[in-house]
Amino acid sequence: MKITLSTFIASSALSASMAVAAMATSAPAQAFQITIEPKFGSTEKTGASALLDFNFSQFADNQVKLNLDITNTTDGTKGDFKATEATLVGLAFDADNFDPGAPVGFNSYNPGTSGFTKLWVKGIDTPSLPPYGDFDVAISPPRNTFAGGNPQDGLTAGQFTTVSFLFDTSLSADELSDALENGFLNQAFRIAGRFQQVNAGGGSDKVLGGIVKGGEPVPEPTTIAASLLALGGLGLFKKKFQHKQAV
Known about the structure:
Largest sheet: 13 strands, mixed
InterPro entries: Cyano_PEP, Ice-binding_C
Order of helices and strands: HHEEEEEEEEEHEEEHE
Protein name: Cistern family PEP-CTERM protein
Shape: globular
Radius of gyration: 17 Å
Keywords: Signal
Signal peptide: 1-31
Structural class: alpha+beta
Distance between the termini: 11 Å
Strand content: 25-35%
């Protein structure tokens, strides 16, 4: 049964006990990585960075769970200013349907023990990250705006946490993983990190992400134009998520 977005937001945070039960009934599937770093786009090129591990599992016949491992990898080796300290205070991403023939419903979000307890959804609390525009979904610590606010409860350099999402879909865990990975690889979907308390440049940064293959980020910036041409008319088929009641 469809519900309003406001009801979805109110029911989006699962309890810790439900999260443990979900893990017990999940079957592991394939995974992929995204790195957020200046080579994909950065407003300040401070060198703030993060690594995201996308781990999918079959939750039920028509549900797939995504465990998203988040690590702040800021280490003084990236960007023009080689930041060694930065606080990751938000992740934003596009969440359109991955396959027009197999709709994907965004069911619920679980922040786990992380500080990323606020869920932003376009049309309710639209996550905006100038100059990259609006995103469909984002997570952050509690704050008044996604792009700005108090950096408390974010991830400092070297810290790690895990959050999870539950999807209603006719796709299998492997199929959903493939579809999402290809969307990021072809840049049909965007993902970005918001950093504050950076000890380089202007003191904060907004950084885009890309797929990691064989330990290296891809595509290289010089191949982005070719990837977009190969993508063709995929954007014509993109539809918004169907928001369904959380279990």
